[in-house]
Every structure is written in C-alpha cells, then in structure tokens.
Amino acid sequence: MNPFDLTGRRAVVTGANTGLGRGIAVALAEAGAAIVAVGRSDMGETREAVAATGRSFRAVTADLGSLEPIPRIVAEASEEGPVDILVNNAGTIRRAAAIDFTEDDWDAVLDVNLKSVFFLSQGFARGMLERGRGGKIIHVASMMSFQGGIRIASYTASKSGLAGLTRLMANEWAGQGINVNAIAPGYFATNNTAPLRADPERNGQILGRIPAGRWGDPRDLGGAAVFLASPAADYVHGILLPVDGGWLAR
C-alpha cells in the first residue's frame, strides 16, 4: 500500500481560487483526493486543473472575513461524503508601520487568518469526531510564525497565533485520531508578496537570503501537503513544517 495515496478521501482547501491554495488543491487531487475548494472569487482555473487529474471538484463560494458562512461551508462540503482533510490556507495581509497601524487593519487580518481558521477547524473536527474515523487538519502558517517581520503587525500576530493553535489542537485531538499540523511557506510568488517582488531592493534582499536562490512556486508546497494529509503522517502531530528554500537555515 502506498502510504501517500489519498484515494477515497475528501479534502477541503480554503483560498483555493489562486496561489498556494490552488497548488495544494491540485497536489491533493493528484494524490487521489476529491476536492472541495472554498474561495471568494472565481475558481475556474482550479476546477480545470483538478479536472485534469480525474478527481471530483466542488466549489463553495464564501468570504472568511466573518464567521457567518462557516456552518454553510461545513454543510455543503459534506453533502457528497464525509470530509477527511481540511487545509486552512485562506489568508490576507495589511501593510503599515506599527506606529500607524489601525484597528481595521488589525481586525481584518485576525478575522481571516486566525478566528475563521479556529472555528472552521472546530466545525469540521466535530464531524470527524462524530464519525470516529479521525482526519487531517493542516494550517498554512508562515515564516512569521517564527520571525517578527516589519510593517505587518496583524499578519505576524495571526501567524504566530496559528502556530500556537496548531499545537493546542494537536494536544486535544491527537488521541481521537485527528492530526493537526501546519505548513510554513517561505517567500512564495503570490498576490500577497507582489509588493515585495516589485521592490528591487527588497526583492534582492530576500533572494540574497534564500539558499535555493529563488522565490517559491505554489507547486513546491504540494509534497508537504500530501505528506501531512496522508497515512504517512499518522504519527505526526503539532508540527510546523517549513517549506522555505532554506530561509530559516540562514
């Protein structure tokens, strides 16, 4: 038996309409999982990429800036079968100096990156526990789960908090068959990092520190996601797995 085979599993991936979420969704589909993609914008490209793997695809349109859609997401995602895998990838960022940071910039990021992640995980974990067959929950953390960064106060707070929640959920649910872990992407070429890549000075500084010498591609997260979602990781609980081109090694 292939320990990385996800055939017969159903995976929910939030923020799957673009970037890292799309890369993770496609990788899980290639490993055999049916995909439920959650996003607030068109997911046509993700649908096409998943369809090319021969796996089923369902889109759930929702904005995770509030808790309002969470019961609906859980219900719709489970209509065609139980959910075995949840990937909390949806996230947002606001940039400003700490001295100028506003309450709106704080709340907008914490609501998506931390509050919704907790309650969406809670919603799906209830189903996993009721069925008694466990499951896998994977959070998408960040280098800011380890470091402070600059000009991203609420983002750093949310990703540091997510590291703590990963450990807490693992402590509470590991004994009941739910694996909770996190992937910590390094500097990837996504919409969130477009301002950094467009700044020649910052782009040069970042690339100069990455031993791999390049920005990450969303496809680079696929192997880590498949591993943590698969039986190969059945005894892995509460870790933050960096996928960073060697950034933290410097």
Element layout with pairings:
Layout (H helix, E strand, L loop, with lengths): L9 E5 L4 H12 L3 E6 L4 H8 L5 E5 L8 H8 L7 E4 L14 H29 L3 E6 L12 H21 L4 E8 L8 H5 L1 H10 L12 H8 L10 E4 L7
Parallel strand pairs: 1-2, 1-4, 2-3, 4-5, 5-6, 6-7
Helix pairs in contact: 1-2, 1-8, 3-4, 4-5
Architecture overview:
Helix 1 (19-30) links the parallel strand 1 and strand 2. The chain is built from 8 helices and 7 strands. A 7-stranded parallel β-sheet has the order 3-2-1-4-5-6-7, sandwiched between helices. Helix content is 40%, strand content 15%. Helix 1 packs parallel to helix 2 (44-51) and helix 1 (19-30) packs across helix 8 (222-229). It is globular, with a radius of gyration of 17 Å. The protein has helices at residues 19-30, 44-51, 70-77, 103-131, 153-173, 194-198, 200-209, 222-229, and strands spanning 10-14, 34-39, 57-61, 85-88, 135-140, 178-185, 240-243. The chain has one domain: NAD(P)-binding Rossmann-like Domain (Rossmann fold, 3-Layer(aba) Sandwich). It is an alpha/beta fold.
